[in-house]
Amino acid sequence: MTKTLLTIASVYLAVIGLALLIVPAQFGVDAVPDDPSSELLALLRLLGGPLLGISVMDWMARNVDPSSMVNTVLLGNVVGFGFVAGNDVVGVATGNARDLAAIFLVVHLALAIAFVVAWVRAREGAAPAAAH
Q: What is the pTM (predicted TM-score) of this model?
């Protein structure tokens, strides 16, 4: 399950990161004005870089045997997707988010929950090894 989850997250984050870097105004439909400032586009592109970095980290970690490093990668994804899902919940609940936020809410919440499950399972699997 962990390998599949990390693969899905890696591909998803790569697509979002590349979209922010290459077509930030189009990716930000309904959130970015028709004539965005160069500063706004630069900020959106700035966010794409770290997403690509996390994508690579997830991609590389998917084939590693369970270890504290994989546990750390899983926890990082729990935090990242958890905060993004929380932001989506608030935006959708208040009506302050763009229409696409409802779709992203489902994706981000599903990924956050899946990473929590994977992280808990990884910690349970690592507990006996730590006792030796």
A: 0.76
